[in-house]
User: Fold these one by one.
Assistant:
Number 1:
Amino acid sequence: MPSTVDGRSEMNQVKLHDTVLDTGAEQLGKVYARALVGAADAAGVADEVIGQLDRYVDELLKEHPPLALALASPRISEEEKGRILDRLIGESCHPVLVRFLKIMAKRGRLGYAPAVRDSARQLQDEILGRVTAEVRTALPLTDDLRQEVLQRIGASTARQVRLVEVVDPGLVGGMVIRLGDTIFDGSISNRIQKLSRRVRAGFSRELVEKFASFAGDTA
């Protein structure tokens, strides 16, 4: 079984044995993620490539289920999947990612792209010593609030922070922060209470103030 991309060593000659790959999506994702991150890091484009893989998974596969099914289907040939990938991302994504996905197509593993993305994100964060914080808010974060959250979390963890933003109107003006296995849930919502319609324009400023109070209590 080839262990390089088109005869190259770009995938760091990672051997992807079926006995390893068939142990489950999570394990398979980790194996392929190591190959992708290694190749992208060697080219100095790791964050760029992983960001593009994010968009491939979230904007193409998740939003177009028939496409995801087609790319995962064993009934569609490797050649046809390659042509589909070229049409979809050939010009918009880095060649490292395009070649990598074609390797997955050749080995019948394109259906595991989401697992690869998750593992690649985790691996890159570990390499950079970066923590991931999921922040749920009732309204989208403004630039000021985003920077405030990043600063507060970065100061409390003494590490670089990657923010994952989720808008959840059900929080009614609140904020929930997930940092690893720790969830600061309800605290912000309870303190802010329900924001009235007349002050929604001032949501960001008030939430910054409440978040500052919250961060001071939990630091």
Number 2:
Amino acid sequence: MATAACFSASLEKIDPIELAPEIFGVPVREPLLHDVVLMQLANRRRGCASTKSRSDVRGGGLKPWKQKGTGRARVGSRRSPLWRGGSTIFGPKPHSFEYRVPRSARRGAIRSVLSLRAGEGRVLVVEELRLDGGKTRALRTSLARLGISSALVVCAAGDHEIERAARNLPTVKSVEVAGLNVFDVLKYEHLVLTKAALGAIHEKLARS
């Protein structure tokens, strides 16, 4: 059975905590993790690149010169893609890159990445993470006492102090259980869970 290092509210190490094997002890499915990460990155793309087609370029109503007799190539519009200031052929237009993988696949990927971190011994559970008014210094000090610098801190819903404290730390991110995702778990070296967050993860993933 998978276990995780556990710390008290004063960040003193206590007995390890057992993790649910159906969440933290499943086989790691790397292709599934790859598919879900690609989905997350695609959904973050803005897709705002835009170029002008012939109908978007100003001018072009009058034929620049007559069809024959000038010795020059035939041309019908100043909006031609061959001309400077003309249109673009098959250029990009704003569009969405979003797509979804099945819900069962997303949940399976979350279990897989949690099992990966648990197998590496990079899951830490804190009974309660107390911060002085959501100060960044307090969070940095707490993580230093845990012996880590790069961490994804998962807290229970409504715990805004941890989120506020993590904003100015480039190697630390705080999310609620509802926002737990594969990309962030893989990005940071350690996964720090509060006791309340661990219970919420069990309740959320054990149902499906």
Number 3:
Amino acid sequence: MNTTLVFVIAALVLTALVSSVILWTLLRQRIEPVVTNQAQANAAIYRDQLAELDNEFAQGTLDDTGLAYARDELKRRLLEDTPVSDPVQPRQMQRSVSLAVALAVLFPILGLSTYVALGNPQAMDPQVRHGAASQDGNRPDMSQLADMLAKKLEANPNNAEGWVMLGRTYRSLQRGDEALKAFDKAAALDPDDEIALERVELLADMRGGSFDGEPWRVIQGILKKDAKHYSALLLAGGASFTERKYADALRYWGQARAQLAPGEKDADGLDKAMAQAREQLGQQSPPAKAAKSAPSGNVSAAPSQGTSVAGKVELAAALRDKVSPNDTVFIYATPANGERVPLAIVRTTVGKLPMNFTLDDSTAMNPQRKLSGETQVTLKARVSKSGNAMTQPGDLTGSLSSIKVGSRDVTLTINEAVK
């Protein structure tokens, strides 16, 4: 049954019930008890007889002894004639018909007026309810969230991760200029290649897809430092495809695809993109290669090496006088695409450094986002005096980007302070 109809019926039933109680009280036949005061009547007769006795005594027809006896007799008779409680005589009361009619009309009107004034009549509209549910349950007001985050960053402007998050939120809201300013502040605080790539991707998007000038310079600068930088290769391939340089796009994407194992989450998407580039070049896609079966002795070893990252974390000698043995140390991995939420994390203290670590799915923060689902990650270590999971000024950090999942003997050094 329609929820609006159910609400209306329930309201009418309740109103009728309350009204019926009030009307029954006003219209029912009521009897009011009336007290007949017999004691007062007996007292009046007693006073008259006393007066007669006094008159006879004055005329000399009654002596003192007779007067006293007569008075005692009157008192005795008065006590016998007067009941302990006065009898009650019922009296029928007049019905309040006019008041009942007035209340029967006014009560529903007052109830409806009160609901209109204080309630939410629009909530009965199915379209309004559906819109509210979709907004509150599935799509929060991102604009308000962005404004709240911006105010928090005004109080703590040195939070690079916060600026990145704000930039992404502005970008999703199509507020390009504000998003670019947020990424500028994040890049100034953290010269991370992933932030730089995300910033120039936004810049190209604001230019209608053109990577001329700064975007290409940033991409090529990163690839010059690390020719296998996965995110830079992806973006270079996309930029080349946009500029119709399909051979270059195929070359960049091919280098990125070579870093992926069959079945990894980005593999299918890259294969489709490369197929489109070959189609533009008039080439045919190569036949799929059959996966080679691993030797029986290494069946369990290969998956384990591709689902974790292991190595050693240490503290730079120049920073040892700035920490105490009980300071908290976070060692974690984040996606190489620039996302800041850790995939896996372990916690220790400065007193245990240097120490060997292993990050895998058993140390995941969210079972739905695992290290084994990534190809490359960014490794980070941070010393926090407060033990707060959020980066704060005064923390000490170190990071390594573009670390392939499955790597061993990685050395992560904590070597800089957060300003």
Number 4:
Amino acid sequence: METLRKKSGFIGCALLLVSGINLQAQESVVQKNPNIVFILADDLGWRDLACYGNPFNETPNLDKLAQSGIRFTQAYAACPVCSPTRASIMTGKFPARLQLTNFIGGVRTDPKSPILPAKWKQFLEAREITVPELLKQKGYTTGMVGKWHLGNQDSIAPWHQGFDYSRMIGKNGLDYYNYSIFIDSYQKEFTDHGTHYLTDKLTEYGVDFIKQNAKRPFFLYMAYSAPHVVLVPRSDKLKKYFVKYGQTEEKYNPNYAAMIESMDDGVGAIVQTLKDQGLLDNTLIIFTSDNGGLGLDELGPVPTSNAPLRKWKGHIYEGGTRVPAIVSWAGKIAPGKVSDTYFSTIDYLPTFCELTGITRLPKDVDGQSILSLYLHPKQETNHTRPLFWHYPHFSNQLGRPAGSVRVGDYKLVELFESGKLELYNLKEDISESNDLSESMKEKTEELHRLLIDWRKKMNAQMPNKNPDYKL
């Protein structure tokens, strides 16, 4: 505990009370030390689940999970690529504050551009306080299964960032039949050469963790690598998707659909395990994605479409940042709800803190607890809280350096290469096709100033001039 105090530099803050619930009722929720299962998909698009309107992919378990709780239509990843979003989940901070603004290993430049990408940190610093480190203070056992992607050094691996149980994808993480899993350290490694499909193996570890810790409060961070390319599905799941191919107006990818189905099977197995262990009524389950779906050829054919959203992974537009999000808690969250209140992945850490009675948050946490949104979604309306994105890089998916801010229905986009500003009304124009910056100059200036001030507050790294650029 003393080590954690030195690492944290905590500041005190008052525990937010759930709207519409009296103090006694709120305490009764906290005193039960609810389990938390956080399931993260990799590159899953906003419309990739059947419960979000996809007519091709089959996701019965996730559909059932959505029906048992809340399906959010305006949930956001804190960045259009994976590592920064994962860091935001772990810390409750904007990636710009962490200066971790691109995926680990992202080094693309464009010699024809007037700017070079911003400098950034290719790891989550060990000094950052993570969700599992906080929950361990309350007696939780913590488990991480799957994709970490926040740095490879031993000191910042999951087993040194608060996780008691770590099963981290190691070598060949994009090959679903030839890979390795590090078990609690870099010294012990499970290696597979075609025996266990990776998604199924990760599910097996998640189920194992739940069974091992059924008699104590636990936090499970279940980070699937699916449906990230390379698209390597299980062959026994493909036939029905090939049969359905071409039967819808928009064409879908059978390989991608089969990979999503395997992940859906995993979610079903985890929920069933909770039920079998008598834990379902005391477990908050969250499912979401780390960024928007991939919408162009990369390591194979186009996986998916984010339409009607604009663009895809690696872009600051809605297709790159808006993600599916499902929250379920049997007996606590009313079933069959749909919420259009927007929030970000920075909000999960403070939510877990309020849920478990942690009143002292780490310094500079940017997120806000949305526990009341889970328990009383009818009382929430789409408010005017600002959310920000900062991506001063060239993505592998053709995204360009840019930033954005959303306040209420309005979203401002700033293109860093040209300085061009774009303004959209997302309520009326979800596709971001009608730029209002010229007709609403006052609103454009207002949001631009807000974005600039936020970057200064975050000490956000900006792109540099390209000395070799020629007009």
